[in-house]
Specification:
single chain; mainly alpha; MetI-like fold; 10 helices; elongated
Length: about 270
């Protein structure tokens, strides 16, 4: 097990632990306003300080973690649940009209930046966490479709696939029983990377007001609220910014570590 995998797993686990703990305990009610204590710097009473409404930042960061994780996790699930079957189908029908339709659809989505697509979708459907999930999930579909198709194409020429065809198995059965298990490791690594990108996308949508809506805390909206107060209350921007950085860094390190750990060629090279 590599050091990047261990470090990434530790950082990611801390964020997940904070999110899970927020369901049963936070130092203060994350939505409770206390105007006399507004803009307090980090201290013993409020570990991360308070915002312009006197709300405890540590409690808001904990609840915001579960918002970001939930949005990114469901969005990646949508992308993987729809993109992987499309990729397997395209690979099984390489050169046919099904493959052409799927890949041209992927190209159409990739022609636009992901955040722009997400903003367009949420602007049409309306702001909110559910629509943010739909927007991020839609962009993840062609990502997983292309990754799956690329990995599957190299497998369709292998001897064990030819043997399965001789045995009379259909393309769908071969894809499910032989192709999918052999691309699972790659999908796990890509899923980790897309998870971190989902965290960033959720923060970006919330920053422009299209993500989770008040009173639900969101790291991106906390940054947006803090931008006019950075000069006299820098902790308002620093703390949610660090939360995003730590989460994305942890997931990326874990993704790199998983790639090194799961790739047999890299294991042989390390040995």
């Amino acid at each position: 097990m590599t050091r990047s995998l261990i470090l990434g797993a530790v950082l990611s686990s801390l964020v997940v632990l904070a999110a899970l703990t927020s369901f049963v305990w936070t130092p203060y009610d994350h939505a409770a306003m206390n105007i006399p204590d507004k803009l307090q710097p980090p201290g013993a009473a409020h570990w991360f300080g308070t915002d312009h409404f006197g709300r405890d930042l540590f409690s808001m960061i904990m609840v915001g973690a579960r918002t970001s994780i939930a949005v990114a996790l469901v969005a990646v699930g949508i992308g993987m649940g729809l993109g992987v079957p499309l990729g397997l189908m395209a690979a099984a029908r390489k050169g046919g009209w099904i493959d052409e339709v799927i890949m041209r659809g992927n190209d159409l989505v990739f022609a636009f930046p992901s955040l722009v697509i997400a903003i367009l979708i949420t602007a049409v459907l309306g702001a909110g966490a559910v629509n943010a999930i739909i927007a991020i999930g839609i962009f993840n579909i062609p990502v997983f479709a292309r990754i799956t198709r690329g990995a599957a194409l190299s497998l369709w020429e292998r001897e064990f696939i030819l043997a399965a065809r001789v045995a009379g198995k259909s393309d769908a059965r071969i894809s499910a029983e032989h192709i999918l298990p052999n691309v699972t490791n790659l999908l796990i690594v890509q899923g980790t990377i897309q998870f971190s990108l989902g965290i960033l996308a959720e923060a970006g949508l919330s920053y422009v007001g299209l993500g989770a809506q008040p009173p639900t805390p969101s790291w991106g909206r906390m940054l947006a609220d803090a931008q006019t107060m950075v000069s006299f209350a820098p902790h308002l921007a620093l703390i949610p910014g660090l939360a995003i950085i730590v989460t994305v860094l942890g997931l990326n390190l874990m993704g790199d570590g998983l790639r090194d750990w799961l790739d047999p060629r890299l294991r042989v090279a390390r040995a």
